Amino acid sequence: MSLKFEEIYKNSLKNPQKFWEEISKDIFWYKKPSKILNKSNPPFYKWFEDGITNTCYNALDVHIQNGLGDKTALIYDSPITNTKSKFTFLNLRQKVARFAWALKNQGVNKGDRVIIYMPMIPEAVMAMLACGRIGAIHSVVFGGFAANELASRIDDSKAKILVTASCGFEPGRTIEYKPLVDKALEIAKHKPEKIILYQREGHEVNLNNITEISWEDALKDAQEINCVEMNANDFAYILYTSGTTGIPKGIVRDIGGHIVALKWTMKNIYNINQDDVWWSASDIGWIVGHSYIVYAPLFKGCTTVLFEGKPVGTPDAGVFWRIISEHKIKSLFTAPTAFRAIKKEDPEGKFFSKYDLSCFKSLFLAGERADPDTLKWAESLLKVPVIDHWWQTETSWAISSNCTGIEMKKTKYGSACMPVPGYDVKVLKADKSEAKENEMGDIVVKLPLPPGTFPTLWNADERYKKTYMSNYEGYYQTYDAGHIDEDGYVWIMSRTDDIINVAGHRLSTGAIEEVLSEHKSVAECAVLGIADKLKGQLPIGLLALKSGVKQTNEEIIKECIQMVRNKVGPVAAFKIAIIVKRLPKTRSGKILRGTIRKIADKEEYKMPATIDDPAILDEIKQDLINNNILK
Ligand code: COA
Ligand code: AMP
């Protein structure tokens, strides 16, 4: 008889070594690990430390070895360019193995970093897997980030090679990557040795010197090369994410734990088998894209879909249904904002009724809190379970979810269900005591974290320890706040730092403030995320000006908005800034961002005891009303 959820969960915490040792047998190892968990140097835990394996082998070769070479591994569906293609495991391995040769031919070795700054095209997936094949560490940078952000990632990772494409497409505009790359290289102190650029048909660009090579030229004389043997604790990738300051944090992923955990999640969380077709509508620049467009489905040996488009406007709000029905997709994973966008365009589901979705069995949402209205709307339209689950770039897989492949739990609207096996989730209060049922506090996870989570930050062990593992000793601090209810359901209510979530994209208000402070007329500023019906949150900037400023308010606001677009990127969606006389602060000078946000969102707030001048809050309220932010 198979074990029920509670029993599996209990086992995973009672004896994590035994639990994960058993699961680790399901992946390919050149040498099986004999040491499962090294706990000798907390908070730096090591999973499977003497195991030898390879990411790419587990994503492709192992399935070919098992007779699945002719099965479709990747479906590329790009409504924005009207292109579709399919790759079998054999096709994909051939392309990956040749590009791995090209990288090696350009001098990339085991442990070298490769930046991938590409749109959602199959070559981006190939580049990621090719890095894994030769043991290089990739760092994918989301296309919606500006040159500055790309430069900071080049500098921090000291990448040897940068792989890019001639352009990407957003509805109504073409994103030229080459000028962005050129600018980033101008800003960066570290210079990658070579740029490999994929020329998109009809959008070829000039390459100007011997350090720039086209993808095609890089493949001249290429041979298919084999996977290299890697230690389980070597790094597969660095994915930079927003921190509390403008300096992004390099989340690293080790190889062995990543394969073991992600493969396990496909069946146990998502109920996906090898024969199924799976789709994650995200971008490979985010963690959801890393884990669930590329790695987990390929480790499982099922078919994954790479979608270059938007939920609406490419060409219409029916594109998700067209793709699900055409490719016979069993489950979809996306962010709630995508469904809010579809609901806004097609509230009655007129497009939906045009397609046969009998293949479709479940929808998973994450990246931001799934508001109950959207979740219920999706449920009534799709007539399948809609599951909100909670996770972070740091963990790479869900911390709490309905584990549908183990046992389907009932839905509680607004909750991300229960902690997943491997995660001992607690709610702690500021005095470090454990919160009672339904009592709010900081959500933490007892150490050690399970395999596949982040063992450290790139070149920043101290920052890892200080940021995540120090406030509550023995626990990982998630920086999310919420509660656990009487049935053990986890409710994620807000961030406790200055991270905001805009259309499922994680952004640091601190990073935006750093840019605004550089404006010559701005004395000080505050950026906060206010509630938005479509994107969940939107950043707004409050600018207090220097005295004697000659520019008009309109000019300053326009320049500030442009500066954020140029320095952080369009993805920041920073379009609202207002001029205020003063900013409310505590007596020690800390800006009361949380209180301003509550005023803007019409939430109740207490007058902070430490406020310097309470009258400023009334001024701010009036400014928000005058600017139509508070209605
Ligand atoms: N390259 C360049 N620019 C990009 C980009 C990319 N890869 N992705 C987004 N942008 C730009 C957009 O064009 C937009 O620019 P604009 O201000 O000129 O219009 C800006 O960044 C903001 O993008 P976005 O927040 O995506 O807003 P949108 O209005 O274009 O689309 C949604 C809204 C809801 C349709 C869209 O966010 C979406 O599909 N979300 C799905 C969820 C998702 O992918 N989540 C990721 C984590 S799971
Ligand atoms: P990212 O690292 O980009 O995946 O963002 C992680 C953050 O997104 C989390 O720390 C949460 O604040 C938020 N988040 C992700 N999933 C959920 C969810 N299901 N419910 C509430 N918040 C979520």
Calculate Rg over CA atoms: 24 Å
Bound small-molecule species: coenzyme A, adenosine monophosphate
Mean pLDDT: 96
As residue ranges, the low-confidence spans are none
CATH class of the domain at 503-626: Alpha Beta
Strand content: 15-25%
> How would you characterize the largest beta sheet?
7 strands, mixed
Determine the CATH superfamily of the domain at 503-626.
Answer: ANL, C-terminal domain
Summarize the helices and strands and which ones pair or pack:
Blueprint lengths: L4 H10 L1 H9 L12 E2 L7 E2 L4 E2 L1 H11 L6 E7 L4 E6 H17 L7 E5 L4 H13 L2 E4 L6 H11 L3 E5 L1 E4 L2 E4 H11 L6 E5 L13 E3 H4 L11 E2 L3 E7 L7 E6 H14 L8 E4 L6 H14 L2 E5 L11 H9 L3 E4 L1 H10 L16 E4 L6 H11 L3 E3 L11 E2 L16 E2 L5 E4 L12 E6 L14 H8 L6 E10 L5 E6 L3 E4 L2 E4 H9 L4 E11 L3 E10 L7 H15 L8 E5 L12 H8 L14 H12 L5
Parallel strand pairs: 4-17, 6-7, 6-8, 8-11, 11-12, 16-17, 16-18, 18-19, 19-20, 30-31
Antiparallel strand pairs: 1-2, 3-13, 4-5, 9-10, 14-15, 21-22, 23-24, 24-25, 25-26, 27-28, 29-30
Helix pairs in contact: 1-2, 3-4, 3-5, 3-10, 4-5, 6-7, 9-10, 12-13
Adenosine monophosphate binds next to strand 26.
